UniProtKB/TrEMBL annotation:
InterPro entries: ENTR1 (IPR026757). This is Endosome-associated-trafficking regulator 1. Transmembrane segments: none annotated. One of its GO terms (cellular component) is midbody. GO terms for biological process: positive regulation of cilium assembly; positive regulation of protein localization to cilium; regulation of cytokinesis. The lineage of its organism: Eukaryota, Metazoa, Chordata, Craniata, Vertebrata. Keywords: Coiled coil. It comes from Pygoscelis papua. Belongs to the ENTR1 family. Residues 19-92 form a coiled coil.
């Protein structure tokens, strides 16, 4: 019985040591799990902050693009008006050349003013069109970025 008791005590000691080892491993794994949870939460918060920033930039670029588009529309309307004025001046110029040589200087001056206005509108129109194209390129970049974020999110979810 003594030998059997000694054998059983030895087995109990071994099992207690094994149990303590397993408990230590369990505690380490629980700590590691908690650290991973904290890390994932921080990454999720960072990603959310980045998405919000991208959304704000997208809204800002959308407003800028709309403003540029409105400006381009106004400039096109002004351009059309100035084209009509230029044509009227040319018509008046032709009429004056045929019958009223004395008023030719005034017509020429009106045509020059109309031409200068037209050139100014054309220059402004080009600038606005460039801004509109730039805004569209920025919107495309943001759309590509959002697509990339969606892809990253899908990969993260598959990895879990």
């Amino acid at each position: 019985l003594k030998e059997e008791n000694a054998s059983l005590r030895s087995k109990i000691n071994k099992l207690q040591i094994f149990s303590e080892t397993q408990a230590d491993k369990m505690r380490k794994l629980e700590r590691k799990l908690e650290e991973n949870k904290i890390k994932e939460e921080k990454e999720a918060q960072d990603l959310e902050a980045m998405v919000q920033h991208v959304e704000q930039n997208l809204q800002l670029m959308t407003k800028r693009a709309a403003k540029a588009e409105n400006s381009a529309t106004k400039l096109k309307q002004e351009n059309a008006l100035l084209q009509v004025q230029l044509q009227n001046c040319r018509t008046e110029n032709e009429a004056l050349r045929s019958g009223q040589a004395a008023s030719l200087a005034a017509v020429k001056q009106n045509a020059d003013v109309a031409l200068q206005n037209l050139l100014t509108v054309i220059t402004n129109s080009r600038s606005s069109i460039k801004q509109l194209v730039s805004g569209a390129e920025s919107l495309q970049l943001v759309a590509d970025l959002l697509t990339s974020i969606d892809s990253i999110s899908e990969v993260s979810q598959d990895g879990q």
